[in-house]
Design goal:
19% of the residues lie in helices and 12% in strands. It is of the alpha+beta class. The chain has 3 domains: 90 residues, no CATH class; 127 residues, no CATH class; 118 residues, no CATH class.
């Protein structure tokens, strides 16, 4: 049985037998009952408690036991559970200081461990606990604070030994800001060097339950987030949003080094990674339902910014969202929501951050490498063979009209001269008009069952027919 519980039981037994007067309530004003007839050295004084009184009711330690949180032995008046008089020393023997009259029943933490479970059995023990200095943090009698801590919040105690560099930056973790160090750290012992109450990410997910749900239900998760939250986030304080260890995108590039070098060297950089949340505008750093940790389908992300006209160093970019809504014949990659099939969302050396070469002009000398973007999906022979019966429907008899228009060394018409690369109202994404400097050149294209006709601003009306070649004058 615990020592102080035994002492308390003895005290109750003595009271029940009537051998001593009833002890007054804690903090009460009832005078103790007179002691039985027995010789006394003199009248009761503050230094000589009346017989039958306890340490806390005899006028000496009358404030003891009146705090909000009181140690169990003090509550029941079992002072001798911890203190024992020295042999042959009458208490009190000193007028001003009587501490020398008593000894502890055990030394250091061993005194606490006579009742409390040991706190020094795990691999890592907190210094004060290891040295048996329980009273460095706890008051052994009473305190206004829970666990009878000597100060509150608990961080005041921690910062007596640990450097206070955990609350000095712009962003501070909630528990740290409130001084609740023990929300994450065990103040006595643990299994790792900082005595975390739970190991690994479960510690963070114990509070961040929304993230726990996302990890359980979403298709993809970022490996650093899945393995160690602290790899990206400082658990105490940081000058960066969300307490990241480095600002984004520097944090991202510390792992994605190749991507960082690519963006730095790119002739044309995508502004999406420079504004607002930088990389996090498009990527979720924790979990996602899309590959590459994308926050949504690629086209949806793109149209989140390209829903207005944008000014760029290479000219104005149209409101793409409005354009696609107004033009039903949509290019295949866009129809599949795959803008990155043609555009590199980080940066490129090509016009409009295209992944491969594509002429930005109306006229360009033909070379297959000039059309690397188009030929990534379309067969190069489309512009290499002068005659065909199957490569394209844009032919007059067997004459390949793609070859006629594009494969020229002087003024080869580029794909953009006839086709709108994103969407159009006409079949095969034929343009209504095409910019030629300050002039919008009309195409005036008309389709037939076996061919068609156009009367553009660049030449007179001409037709073509796959079944019977048209003779144009």
């Amino acid at each position: 049985m615990d020592r102080w519980v035994l002492a308390g039981a003895c005290l109750v037994l003595v009271l029940a037998l009537g051998l001593a007067a009833s002890a007054q309530p804690r903090g009460g004003s009832t005078k103790p009952a007179p002691a039985p007839a027995a010789p006394a050295p003199g009248p009761a004084t503050k230094s000589t408690p009346p017989a039958g009184s306890s340490c806390t009711t005899g006028g000496c330690h009358d404030k003891m036991g009146t705090g909000r949180y009181v140690h169990g032995p003090v509550v029941v008046g079992a002072c001798k559970a911890c203190h024992t008089p020295k042999p042959n020393v009458a208490h009190p023997s000193k007028a001003k200081d009587s501490e020398g009259d008593f000894e502890f029943v055990a030394n250091g933490a061993d005194l606490c461990y006579t009742c409390h479970e040991r706190k020094n059995v795990l691999p890592v023990v907190h210094g004060p606990v290891q040295w048996g200095q329980c009273s460095f943090c706890h008051d052994p009698h009473q305190s206004p604070n829970r666990f009878r801590l000597k100060e509150t919040p608990v961080s005041k105690l921690c910062f007596k030994c640990h450097k206070d560099d955990k609350t000095t930056s712009k962003e501070v973790h909630g528990p740290v800001a409130l001084g609740e160090c023990t929300a994450c750290h065990d103040p006595h012992q643990g299994r790792d060097k900082v005595r975390l109450t739970t190991q690994g990410n479960p510690l963070c997910l114990g509070c961040h339950e929304e993230r726990k749900q996302e990890f359980a239900t979403r298709k993809f998760s970022h490996k650093p987030a899945r393995e160690n939250c602290n790899g990206c986030h400082d658990p105490h304080t940081s000058d960066n949003p969300a307490r990241t260890r480095k600002p984004v995108p520097e944090l991202c590039f510390s792992c994605h080094e190749g991507q960082g070098k690519h963006i730095a060297a790119a002739r044309t950089q995508h502004d999406a990674y420079k504004i607002e949340k930088k990389c996090l505008n498009c990527h979720d750093p924790h979990t996602a339902d899309q590959p590459k940790q994308l926050r949504a389908v690629a086209a949806q992300l793109c149209l989140g910014c390209h829903d207005r006209e944008l000014e760029t160093p290479t000219g104005k970019i149209m409101n793409m969202k409005a354009w696609l809504a107004d033009n039903p014949v949509i290019h295949g990659p866009i129809r599949q929501g795959d803008c990155p099939a043609c555009h590199n969302p980080h940066g490129s050396d090509n016009f409009r951050i295209l992944r491969r070469a594509y002429p930005a002009q109306f006229y360009a000398p033909f070379a297959t490498e000039q059309y690397a973007l188009c030929f990534g999906c379309h067969e190069p022979t489309l512009a290499l063979e002068a005659t065909t019966v199957k490569l394209t429907n844009f032919r007059n008899g067997e004459k390949n009209l793609h070859f006629v228009h594009v494969n020229r060394t002087d003024k080869g018409r580029t794909c953009r001269a006839c086709h709108e690369t994103h969407a159009s109202k006409r079949p095969k994404q034929i343009r209504e008009s095409v910019s030629f400097g300050r002039w919008e050149v009309p195409t005036n294209y008309e389709k037939s069952d076996t061919g068609g006709r156009c009367t553009p601003g660049c030449h007179v009306s001409r037709g073509y027919d796959r079944a019977t070649a048209v003779v144009n004058k």
